[in-house]
Design goal:
There is one protein chain. The strands form four sheets. Strands 6, 7, 11, 12, 13, 14, 15, 16 and 17 form a nine-stranded antiparallel beta sheet that branches. This protein has a three-stranded antiparallel beta sheet with strand order 3-4-5. The protein is globular and about 70 Å long. The protein is of the alpha+beta class. Strand 4 and strand 5 form a beta hairpin. 30% of the residues lie in helices and 21% in strands.
Length: 374
């Protein structure tokens, strides 16, 4: 579904289609020495992570935090300050594994330190994200686990749009990868008439879709294969220094308003018109390498059009009327992540934006929210 009026910190950006990622991050061993500002950011992140955990444990001890909320609070600490969390876990494992082996231990701890660098956003570098052991990190934050609304206070991100979307999901944003309702488990064997009745759909769906409470927005005639459902989402926009390479950085969460949970969906990096460090084709190749180096299924670069390339683990066979991938939740579900790279209108191999979407989260979300309508 085509997107317009996309807000970024500096300008109104015309957004396009489906799922995201971007440039492949360098391997950890190849990461260079951090700049003074990066070292300062790392130190601040470490302090903030420790305080976040300490505060949560103190509240638990004082009886002000239930075990369930403590767990969510600790997840929030990891997602807000991922470098410190990864480093501590990595170092503990290294000390246990290489006890008495000084040279090996030193080498491994150096790798652990590179996790701090790799997950720290550096404005002058062209790559704002990293994939490590199937965990995704974008512009200094983790983008992996569901967060409660209370934990959505992300460093350097403005999340002011999220709370209104949780309160009134009918006013959220509905776009990106659409799926026919039958792609989800609750409706996989149901006929269109039954689906329509369960969802309380009108005879004629208006052009701007029909919102279904606690589900999402349906577009098109449910009796046809073109019917599509989109789920509510809301964005957090990067509010720190963007540097010379970017005009905007955003993360989008799927909105589970009944549980007040936010599930990571996709992130997007908009590049400056003068960005030339990597072409669209080079970024695609880097993405292929990134997935391979992190143990994901083989991802291949392919072109949807002159402007748009996709990096995915399986061939994409279905597209909507605007040329965007659809029905990515069809069985067998072959996609976990999918990346889309868009070139500029007049310079097709010059990158405009890169998106990475977590399709596994999208499909799981769809299975969950359609379940009550069986």
């Amino acid at each position: 579904m085509d997107i317009t009026n996309f807000n970024s910190p500096h300008l109104i950006i015309i957004f396009l289609i489906s799922s995201y990622l971007g440039i492949a991050p360098p391997t950890l061993k190849a990461a260079g020495k951090p700049s003074p500002s990066t070292r300062e950011n790392i130190q601040q992140s470490n302090r903030s992570f420790k305080k976040c955990r300490s505060d949560a444990l103190t509240l638990m001890k004082d009886g002000k935090l239930s075990p369930k909320r403590l767990k969510r609070r600790l997840v929030g600490c990891k997602e807000k300050f991922p470098g410190a969390s990864l480093y501590i876990s990595c170092k503990k494992k290294a000390l246990k594994t290489f006890k008495g082996k000084k040279s090996k231990l030193k080498e491994k701890i150096l790798e652990c330190k590179q996790l701090l660098v790799g997950t720290t956003f550096e404005p002058d570098k062209p790559i704002p994200f990293m994939l490590h052991k199937s965990q995704y990190f974008f512009a200094g934050i983790g983008f992996n686990k569901p967060l409660s609304l209370r934990e959505l206070k992300l460093p350097n991100f403005d999340c002011s749009k999220v709370r209104p979307a949780v309160k009134k999901p009918q006013n959220a944003e509905f776009f990106l990868f659409g799926n026919h309702p039958q792609m989800f488990k609750a409706f996989s064997r149901a006929n269109p008439k039954k689906i329509s009745r369960k969802l309380g759909l009108p005879r004629s769906i208006p052009p701007d879709g029909h919102y279904v409470d606690n589900l999402g927005k349906v577009f098109g005639d449910i009796r046809t294969k073109k019917a599509t459902i989109f789920f509510p989402s809301a964005s957090c926009v990067f509010s720190g220094q963007l540097g010379p390479n970017f005009t905007g950085l955003s993360v989008y969460y799927l909105v589970d308003s009944s549980r007040q949970l936010l599930l990571p969906y996709f992130s997007i990096a908009f590049y400056h018109p003068n960005f030339s460090a990597l072409s669209k084709g080079q970024m695609g190749q880097e993405l292929e390498k990134m997935f391979a180096e992190n143990g994901e299924k083989e991802h291949k670069l392919s072109s949807i059009s002159e402007q748009i390339d996709v990096v995915a683990s399986a061939e994409i066979k279905e597209f909507d009327e605007e040329g965007d991938p659809r029905n990515l939740c069809a069985q067998p579900r072959s996609h976990r992540f999918i990346s889309v790279l868009k070139g500029r209108e007049n310079e097709k191999n010059k990158i405009e934006y890169v998106i990475m979407a977590n399709i596994k989260n999208l499909c799981s979300f769809g299975d969950k929210v359609t379940r009550p309508f069986r």
